[in-house]
Predict the structure.
Amino acid sequence: MRLYRAILYRLMLAVITLWLLSVIVFAGCQILPGDVGRAILGPFADARSVAALNHQLGVDRPLLVQYWSWITGMLHGNMGQSYTYRAPVAPFIGHALLNSLKLAGIAFVLVVPLGILGGVVAALRVNTWVDRTIVIAGLSATVVPEFVSGIVFIMVFSIWLRIFPLTATPPSHAGFFTTIYYLLMPSIPLFMILFGYIARMARAGMIEALTSDYTRTAVLKGLTYRQVIWRHVLRNALLPTITVIATQTGYLIGGLVVVETLFNYHGIGSLIFAAAKAKDFPMLAAGILVIGVVYVGANLIADLLYSALNPRISFGGRE
Amino acid sequence: MQDATAAALEVRDLDIAYRVRGRDRQVIRGLSFRIGRGETFGLVGESGCGKSTVALAVTRYLPNNGRVRAGGIRIAGEDALAMDAAALRRLRTRSISMVYQDPGRALNPSIRVGQQVAEVFEIAGVPASERMDRAEAMLERVRIVDAGRVMSRYPHQLSGGMLQRVVIAMALAVDPTLLILDEPTTALDATVEAEVLDLIETLRAEMGSSVLFIGHNLAVISRMCARVGVLYAGTLVEEGPTRDVFAGPRHPYTVGLLRCLPQAGLSKHKTRLDTIPGFLPTSLAGIRGCVFAERCGLAQDICRAEEPPLIPVSEGRLSRCHFHEQAPDLPRSTPPAPLANRQKTQAFRPVVRAAGIGKTFGSPTAPIYALRDISIEIWPGETLGLVGESGSGKTTLAKLLLGLTAPDPDGVIELNGQKLAPVATKRQPAELEALQIVFQNPDAALNRSQTIRRIISRPMRKLGGYRGGKLATKLTELMSHIRLAERYLPMRPRQLSGGLKQRVAIARAFAGDPRIVVCDEPTSALDVSVQAAILNLLADLQAEQGVSYLFVSHDLRVVRYISDRIAVLYLGRLMEIGPAEAVFLGPHHPYTESLMAASASEEAGGSLRLKGEIPSAMRPPSGCVFHTRCPRKIGAICEEQEPALIQREGDHAIRCHLERDQLGRADARP
């Protein structure tokens, strides 16, 4: 019973967050300079056609009315018309989101297990060369911006060694493995950025759990090393890592502008980037909101997962 | 392989060092002792003496930088230091078990209690189908009521006493040869402590395990152990039958330690406590002679040049002192006469008066009464001691006075006759200055990144408005009052010992010339010798400045020593209030009586021992809130009608249905 109430409570929080985001996005798009009709028609169009277009687009209505029609449209799945393509926004967003999910998925599948493994191994060999190598390598990889590592990879693997394709976009009707093959190289820069974070969290959690009193209890019970680690240490150690992974998921979906642009990949990051450049507000707003939904969703899942795994968290917040 | 006739534990010439910054720091030196089959041996000493290191070494769980440099440990005849991983596991499974200081941390927070107990049986090779039943039976054996339900609980859902029972159940599940108890009751309430100790004693007698009991509480050790070893700076300084050692110590350290304890009948008005001057040596490396020589009032040249051996002083007793015969005549390190009370003016009104204050948490539909209808007065220059178990509302009351939480709207708190705002943020600087606090844990109370100078001078500037030269003068004056050398001013808290940190915390409270200081368990985190010095300091400051204290503590001996009057709280109700001696000697409330019976020095607690735990404040018992645990319950009236707090004689008031001559008194106890 309390569990359902807690989930409901967090869902409510998520909804409020998204609503706030929608207000900010909407306000942001209004503050951006320029008259929409003028922006679309260019500096030489006459004032009458600009006004006519503005009227047609509905941007000459009061702000609250515009917001209301925009947000209700969103809730009904109607994301509006793109100014640039003169077509509904939704299919563009859907396509781009799917692409981004593929790329993020591959990075996620690579980095989460390896990051955790790296952190765990480092903690089990704390203060040895293994530990130092993992920590330093993770940290160094994290600070390399993705456009640097991405360009280096393109130079080495695509242009010089010709192992991987230059672009991340697979040919149409490509199969599962071909898609992965195309996406593998673009996901490496992402992997490099995230590995350090995750490994470090996992390592810190492991060290804390390893030096805890309950681990001592487990060892002194006479359990084997393996049993101690698997039963008593890992579960407690990896709880905080879950939160980090969730916040990074948001980045993986929405923050890929650079990588997507670099590898010429039509994901949601490059879509928003293009929309912002073209002042295509409906596209921009919808894109940001979708990323927001993914981000909030990921955090919600992490929250619930964390609570489910940690009996000390009493659902529903306050005692 | 095990030898049934060999000693349960034999430690010989043990030498342990920790490697710190590339250097070996010796922590145990030449330690030898032996625990026979079925024997109980206590290892007593203050923090930093190395007693926990001994436990870790015996279980082969020294941290990575710890190393046994010499000597041997034999458990049931087997060489523990020579064991490989498999033999070590076998040893831990079958021969040794350990009960730890903090049961809340010793259990895995994310595994159900039943499973954790069952795991012990799994390792012991019990078939899977029987494990859970055996675990439940074991929980019943440690007197856990409703064991089946407790099995499916997570540790955070159980109280400290309950958790410690679970840990004991795990430790005794395999019938170990040697049971190591490392401060098993330090984290528990006195009443729970008494129960847990009873339990350990009973089970130990049933199972015949040998016990290594590690602790700093002399009263607990003397109750639990037949023999005791006194550890100082990693060295065993005295050993012998507990009763004899504590009745007639033959090493100056033991003598000093015992004198630090506030004995029954002592009070701050009669004698100051004796203390042990100086500090534990930071390194054993440079010491050629006796480790205690630096702090010993009997030390001669020979003590600094030559380390005394363990000298047999009588049958079964050893003392590592060249002058063990003179040990009982160790001169006092502090003058016994308390400071003359300089501010003996007749007060005509209390400094703090609280009338009908309460605190209700929770929602209006499910109120939790943390405190109900409390009226107290604290007079200038007096100490009001506040006692009660955890959950009785002591801390809540302190917080209400300080304005850290707002009381329920109908209560009144007055300072010098002026009504105080309910929360501190609304109070005047002068009022804040007048009402100060010293916390239990100075580590948590002092800002680690600030210097001592900054910590102490801030309230002087903020509340007293002192600046520049005046501030410096005031600071010097305060430091001399607190007996804190000025060289500590530029240091940061972590560079100071626990006792010095508490001194800084007291200096901070006294920075603004307070009228009343709330002391929330100010010495419970400190060693007895440090505790004695802090209690002396508090008493001296009171005599000099006429300040009042609200002294919260669970240690009845300390409360008795420092308090003029005592208030007893139970489940948020004031059960008894009166002059300290009257409350202690009786006739007193059955709850006060039970608290005193639980204090570990009194072995004959017997029928007065409190059973079970303090009920939840969410569902307080009807009638008298204490009737569910009361050893002197009369009958239905206790369940139906709450007794009033009635003045019995003088200003001694008791909330009980019993008549005066039916109440218990201290001298009437068997």
User: Anything to note?
Assistant: The radius of gyration of chain A is 24 Å. Chain A has two domains: 2-75, 90-309. DSSP finds 13 helices and no strands in chain A. Chain A touches chain B through 21 residues (CB under 8 Å).
